[in-house]
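Hey all, sorry for the wall of text incoming. These are the two entities for the joint prediction.
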Amino acid sequence: MGASFIPVFLLAVPSLSPTNIFAPASTPAQSIFDLSLFVLEVTAAVFVVVFTLLAYAVVKFRKRKTADAREPAQVYGSSQLELAWTVVPVLIVVVLFLAAARVIASIQNAPKPDNAIEVTVIGHQFWWEFRYPSLKVVTANELHIPVSDPAHPTPTFLTLLSADTDHSFWVPRLAGKTDLIPNHPNSTWVDPHETGLFLGQCAQYCGTQHALMLLRVYVQPRDDFDRWVREQSLPAQITGPISEGEKIFERTACINCHAVAGTAANGRFGPDLTHLMSRDTIASGAASNTHANLRRWIQNPNTIKPGSKMPAMGLSDPELDAVTRYLETLR
Amino acid sequence: MSTQSISVPGTDATRSPLVEQLHQWVTTVDHKRLGLLYIFYALVFLVIGGVEATIMRIQLIRPLNNFVSPQVFNRMFTMHGTTMIFFVAMPLVFGFANYLLPLMIGARDMAFPRLNAFSFWMTAFGGLLLYFSFIGGDGLYGAGNAPDVGWFAYAPLTSQTFSRGHSTDFWTLSLLVSGIGSMGTATNIIATIVCLRCKGMALGKMPLFAWLNLTMGGLVILVVSPLTAAQVMLLVDRYLGGHFFDTQAGGSAVLWMHFFWIFGHPEVYVLVIPAFSFVSEIVPVFSRKAIFGYPIMVAATVGIGFISMSVWAHHMFTVGMTSSGNTFFVLSTMAIAVPTGIKIFNWLATMWGGQIHFRVPMLFCIAFLFQFLIAGLTGVMLAAAPFDWQLTASYFVVAHFHYVIVGAILFALFAAFYYWFPKMSGRMYNEKLGQLHFWLFLIGFHLTFDFMHIPGILGMPRRIYTYEPGRGWDIWNLIVTIGVVFQAAGVLAFVGNLLWCAFRGAIAGGDPWDAWTLEWSTSSPPPAYNFPRIPEVRSRRPLWDLKHPEDPDWHYE
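and here's what came out:
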């Protein structure tokens, strides 16, 4: 107990958590993990030495019942000893510093290859906007990127912006966090080595619903990713006459904030809904994208995410059903 | 050493009426009474801050809990952090410095007694202002009461756009007001140490306590000023149309971070250096040996003071500094491990070859050494910037700084309470109850803060009011909350012991610990004028010289 970093060695098990920093799946996370193992080894060695000295002193030099009343010998210092425990820590610090400096440079100064995917991430209270400028895709909360074969890397470079307050982009298995700060563009990159869903969330306090500003990254095989891009770059596929739900959607304040490509709705304040039904979750990952959740969300967002910026529009039950049905056509 | 018995005003059989006593406390300029006021005031806020922490821990005991709303949770962590730093930790270290410094350097009071009273009341009103936000923070807009921007209040969340009403104003003004008090007290501490030492006490003959508090005073003046400036700038932004931190008008959110952390990081040393000063007095007495390597301890302290001014941006490794900027702050931050390492080894060497008496103050000091060691090592992990990119803003960093603030600073403060309260009250504490306090708090501390590292490693960010099941965080959060029960029981035993100490304890006498510094040469509690005759010293341990005339320290120093 107490040696809180010793159990850390036992934590490098991916199954413990989908957001375990010790289960890296991308180069930046991997080089951080390698550095952290080295730092842990050094600090553990220091701990063992100093703790042993402390425990030995406490046991060995405890006052014994048989001790006479005389004071122990008074020692005022020792230049040799003090020099030793100045020089040795200096050497340890130099080694750790060099190790850290190398990893900083390798991650921050990595060149961007020509075939890199570029995504602009915009943090909002309390959701994520993803724009792929060269692919003409706009989506929210669920980031899709291709897997990167280490032999032929196709990394994804992210430009990080904020529309309001500070946020932080953190997907622990892919990379360390980088903040999204208004008026201060940042960048980061990932190159996931395996496919699958990687979870994360906002890591810089950004207001009431900071806790449910969740983040999902779908790492896909290249073909699947290309198909996803083709589907997402199309406008909304609406057939037949304009539905009642669409009329309500466009008549109320919904379109002040939301966009549906190919219709009158072109708001930018909330998530783009053109392909809403292609997403697994709504409310920035706070609820799965089911009919019941969607209806509840439109009726009163506070029941799912209290403090969310989306207002309840006070729709009647038939209106709610119509809008929900309309949104469910946005595939 | 014979303890001269002197009648203490106010302890006569005929006590003055309650109103008059209260009036005396409110108008006092006596450093001992002001010290006790600081301490009492801080203890009240310690309980309030503890209740806020408990509310957060109940909310996080299981996933998707509904004990409090997100709004309330956000207010709780803002108030908990602000309270514990500004209205518990700082008043406690100021209280002990106020009470003990004149006694330790053989002076009759602080250099500026009325500035001293002014500073205390500024700090006190700062705290009241912060808590008045629960009543007055609503303002005109119905926009929530207590501040909810986090204790480091990052821009632009504090701008009018995102923080309506007056909660942020209460936060800003309370830190502005109490900051003036802090700077007043720091000025006073420096002036007292520089000007009022008794005859023979050259700078190199001061107790380490005085050296460390001198460093703390210097740091407070240097680092509370930028915090105060930042608060004024924020007020200008909010009410006079300024754009320092207004990102929508070209202002800079990062500027606030620099202003805050040039205060915020040295602030840790403002708190931990007094903790070092307690340990540096208590460990020698209970090991029955002189402090090991006094000159290098002084050098390490002053070194920490200087280096701590150059490390602030390690709180900002994720805000997008250049790789060379990040690299510089890795080096400066790791450099601080060298002087702190020296201190740990010197305390160990002081115990080495001694006769360690396991009285309650020493128990807390040994736990301090152990926990400060771990806190330092997790600090080294966080100093390695890439590792920090993963760990910062997660529960790992929360565990790390609580290891410093609770595991090191609060444990040292408890040691100081048990060591000096007999001097302050004239009565001994209850040893059994003190041991109970120690063990309960130790168990609670380790349950809470050891296991808090783990959810951080598993990706749990700080400041979230709820989390989903399936992240592997549940069991750790449960254990962390269980630890709170033990800590609360420990604090209860502590408060009981203080009351015991004040009213029921055995008479302590002037020098219950057979100690060596000047405060133990006068009666307990000391008279208003401290010393009937201003002492004269020849070494760092004047009472050792008196008790061992055959082998005085000044032969060796």
